[in-house]
Amino acid sequence: MMPFSGGKVHEKKMTRYFAKYLEHSSMGTLWVKALQVGWRGMYPTRPEIDIMWGSKRGLDRCPPVTAAEIKYFSAPFERVPSPPPYYSGVDEALALLLFGIDHSVLIHLVDSHLMGSYLRSLEVTRLMIKSLHLPIGYRVYKIIRRDDNVVFKTKALVGEQLMDLEKLWIDPPPNPSLDVPQVQKNREVLFKQLRISKFC
Q: What distance, in Å, lies between the first and last C-alpha atoms of the chain?
């Protein structure tokens, strides 16, 4: 449960909440950075990296490094818009691999009242990533905004059925581009800028 300042929550704000949730739920075993932009010496420098994380050993930040593209689907409670395109965020998640990270994950965050009408689209996203063997992982979380808190859930009531959203998840495979010279250079810059140890 993350503190919530109220009002309309935009994607960047929800990304920061999710970064805090990830760090808190790891019980101190992960380092987490939110909303990072590529640095000088990298090519390309876009897209923005919504969240990155890796393991912690003492004070050291260690690999493997995972980056995530966050897409937050929200709407006022009185309105349920059409589901987003099933490919929403897939291109950015693939592009993150060029930064030299070890893994890339697409994360869809969905307001609780939208889950029922959006479920089919989320299932198609999983099907596409899995059947095409795309080198990215996938996660889905239900978002509950309650009073002054944001809650991230992995179970959702769809109709009268309680669904385990982790059944939609896909573990990210290793980055297949790590032997490309420009990607290796990007990885060097990334590790230097974020002070990630190579000797963990």
A: 31
| pLDDT tens track for 156-179 | 988 778 899 999 999 999 999 999
Residue type, 194: L
Domain that includes residue 9, residue range: 2-193
Distance CA 101, CA 113 (A): 34
Cα 101 to its chain centre, rounded Å, is 13
Q: CB count, 10 Å around CB of 190?
A: 22
Report pLDDT digits (tens) over 85-133. Answer: 889 999 999 999 999 999 999 999 999 989 988 999 999 999 999 999 9
Q: What share of the chain is helix, strand, coil (3-state, %, to 5)?
A: 30, 35, 35
Does some domain include residue 17? yes
Q: Provide CB contacts within 8 A for 88, sequence distance 6+.
A: 71, 108, 125
8 within some domain: yes
Q: Please state the domain count of the chain.
A: 1
For residue 188, the domain's CATH number is 3.40.1350
198 inside domain: no
pTM of the entire structure?
0.91
Residue 200 lies in a domain: no
